[in-house]
Structures are given as structure tokens and as C-alpha cells.
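Priority: medium. Attachment 1 of 2:
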């Protein structure tokens, strides 16, 4: 197993971001366009990030997988290979073992005698489709429950049901032939609302151990949760272990020098103040350089790993996506991957000291008397642990 770092210079952190509309709809980039951040190579193939694509050359074997698993989603990507090139896309696959057996392989290979391009290898044959050599083609793969559909260049070529695997990693195959992939993005499906847009049903206010002079004030207006003052905390009545969480957040500064501080806690103890892991909210950075966050930066796992880039601006809504799966924690801001971390500590119940893998609450933080934030479109999908 070979974790892949940035294969270019440090300036690679300045890659293209999703269009605002796609980011607000919940799309995330699995490939940032210039680095292999968030991926791990399995096998001997050497993957390169070059000119906006992930590629591997002739003669190499292996696969490149996402560090985070996914369950229900729409996956979009583009690929290019030579005449007769053999490759594939793995979905819902385990990190260990053969990915086409633990999950599914969406074929890229016109010359396969049994399962040509678009097929689920060893499962279902796709409608006939031909690839143009050295030409970019587009896949759209949807997995929702046991239903899997595949579109090639906008045309549906497979629509089937299979119950074998419901969650796992997404992977790119190297199978001796040159192959390139680009514009790899995913939208989680089957998300359920945590906030009804009208009131705080399903949520509970938790006061700090020592009441502040100006306690947090939580209100609902125009489909948003607003909080001012603090400290304070608003936590879910339900608990969650492994999940994909998405929400829109806006920090409301007093002036250009004010950067409201907040966070999203998860796997916390019910009723406990600021417990669990914290995904930081702080849109400040040093010397005009967004790769130099202040106080860990928006999207960081606070006190554990800093955000590699501060994406959002104060006073503007941004979308945060948190994926928690066992020890693996990853965060996207406006669809851009800013944090990917595996907790190496011994397992325990206190996330400040240990790797907490058990279920807990999700909380919104009111940090201090200057707090002023809005939260909306809060939704979640639980992930099966695998």
C-alpha cells in the first residue's frame, strides 16, 4: 500500500475548484486536478498527477483508491486510453482484496469477450458501446441502494440491481495499458435532513459548565439557524458513528478584521460540552496566502491536522462536507478536499485523547461573545461500517 502525496510542487494546492452551483448542490472533488491528495495506491503501478489528469503508463498493474468510502452517490469522471486499452472503475470496494470481487468494476475495455465497456465485470453485460482511441469519454455512474446505472457520454448503457456491496472505496484501475482520468467528482445521495428549516426540533441546547455573561442565542429564521454570542452548543438528539454530513455555513463578521470562530463537533457525548472531534470554522489565513491558515483553518480537524487551504470567505455561504468512517476523517469545503486524516491513536471514548470510533452527537459551536453564524441545509447519510 502506497499513500500518495502531492506529485507536483507546493503550488499544486492552488488547483481549480468546482463551480459555485455544483458546490452548493453537494458535489465534491475526488481529484483536485493537480495532486493525489485523498488517494492511496494499491499494487505496483506508479500514478502521476499531470496536466489536470491522473495517469499511469503502459505495463503497470494496480489500482488507485479513495481513502474515504462512499455508499450511495453519483460519480462523474472522464477517461482516455489507447486503442484496445483495458482499465476500469471500481465502486463500493474494500481496501483489501480484489476490488472487482469485494465491490464492482465498471469496465473500460471494448475487446472483453464477456463484459465489454460499461459492464459490471462478472455481473451484468452493458449495451454495446465503442470507445474512440485517445479520446476523452465521460462516465456517469450512479449507485443507490442495490440499483446501479452507468452512462457513457450521456447515453445509458447499463441499469441493473445487485445487493452484494452497499459501501466501499472508489478506485481507478491500471491494467498494463496507458490510462488517464480527470474531472473526478461525486455527489452523495440518500441524504436525510437534520434540520427542518422551521424550528430546532431534533436539536438540544447545551450550556457551558460556567455560564458566560452573554450566553449563546440560537434562533431560526428564513430556513437558517442563526447563533450569536456564546460560548454555547447546539447538538443533535440522535447519535451517529460513520456518516457523510453536509451543511451550508456563513460567518458574519463585524468588520474586515473579524473572522468568527466556530466548529462542527461529531462523535461527541450527549450533553457534554464541546466533546468529540471538531471540524474547525475559521476563514483567516496569513499574509494573503490561503495555504497558511490561522488557528488550523476552516475544514481542519482541530488540534489534529490543519486545512491545507482556506477556501471560503467571511460573509459568504460555503458548503462543508465531512466524511467519518472508522479512523478515517475527511473534509471538503465548497467541494475542495482540505483535510484527509486517519487517527492513529489507541481507541477510546474521548476524542481529545483517543481515536473515538463509537457513535456520538453532532454539534454546532458558539465560540465566544463575537460569534455570529448561519447554518442551513444540514443533511446526513449514515455509512455502513466495513
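Attachment 2 of 2:
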Amino acid at each position: 500500500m502506497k499513500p500518495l502525496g502531492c506529485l507536483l510542487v507546493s503550488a499544486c494546492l492552488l488547483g481549480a475548484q468546482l463551480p459555485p452551483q455544483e458546490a452548493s448542490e453537494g458535489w465534491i472533488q475526488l481529484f483536485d486536478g493537480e495532486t493525489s491528495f485523498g488517494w492511496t495506491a494499491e499494487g505496483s503501478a506508479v500514478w502521476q498527477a499531470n496536466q489536470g489528469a491522473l495517469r499511469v503508463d503502459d505495463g503497470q498493474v494496480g489500482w488507485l483508491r479513495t481513502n474515504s468510502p462512499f455508499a450511495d452517490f453519483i460519480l462523474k469522471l472522464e477517461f482516455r486510453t489507447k486503442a484496445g486499452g483495458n482499465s476500469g472503475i471500481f465502486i463500493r470496494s474494500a481496501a483489501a482484496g480484489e476490488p472487482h470481487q469485494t465491490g464492482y468494476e465498471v469496465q473500460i475495455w471494448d475487446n472483453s469477450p464477456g463484459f465489454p465497456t460499461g459492464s459490471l465485470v462478472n455481473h451484468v453485460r452493458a449495451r454495446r458501446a465503442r470507445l474512440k482511441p485517445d479520446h476523452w469519454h465521460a462516465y456517469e455512474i450512479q449507485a443507490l441502494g442495490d440499483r446501479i446505472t452507468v452512462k457513457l457520454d450521456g447515453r445509458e448503457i447499463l441499469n441493473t440491481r445487485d445487493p452484494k456491496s452497499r459501501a466501499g472505496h472508489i478506485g481507478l484501475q491500471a491494467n498494463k495499458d496507458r490510462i488517464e482520468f480527470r474531472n473526478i467528482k461525486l455527489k452523495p445521495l440518500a441524504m436525510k435532513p437534520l434540520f427542518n428549516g422551521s424550528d430546532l426540533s431534533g436539536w438540544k441546547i447545551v450550556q457551558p459548565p460556567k455560564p458566560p455573561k452573554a450566553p449563546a442565542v440560537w434562533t431560526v429564521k428564513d430556513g437558517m439557524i442563526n447563533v450569536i454570542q456564546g460560548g454555547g452548543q447546539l447538538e443533535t438528539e440522535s447519535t451517529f458513528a460513520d456518516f457523510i454530513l453536509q451543511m451550508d455555513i456563513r460567518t458574519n463578521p463585524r468588520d474586515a478584521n473579524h473572522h468568527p470562530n466556530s466548529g462542527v463537533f461529531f462523535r461527541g457525548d450527549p450533553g457534554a460540552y464541546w466533546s468529540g472531534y471538531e471540524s474547525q470554522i475559521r476563514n483567516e489565513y496569513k499574509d494573503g496566502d490561503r495555504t497558511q491558515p490561522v488557528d488550523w483553518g476552516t475544514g481542519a480537524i482541530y488540534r489534529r491536522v490543519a486545512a491545507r487551504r482556506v477556501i471560503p470567505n467571511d460573509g459568504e455561504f460555503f458548503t462543508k462536507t465531512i466524511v467519518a468512517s472508522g479512523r478515517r476523517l475527511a473534509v471538503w469545503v465548497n467541494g475542495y478536499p482540505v483535510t484527509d486524516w486517519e487517527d492513529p491513536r489507541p481507541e477510546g471514548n474521548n476524542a481529545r485523547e483517543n481515536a473515538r470510533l463509537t457513535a456520538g452527537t453532532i454539534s454546532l459551536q458558539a465560540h465566544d461573545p463575537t460569534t455570529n453564524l448561519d447554518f442551513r441545509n444540514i443533511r446526513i447519510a449514515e455509512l455502513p461500517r466495513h
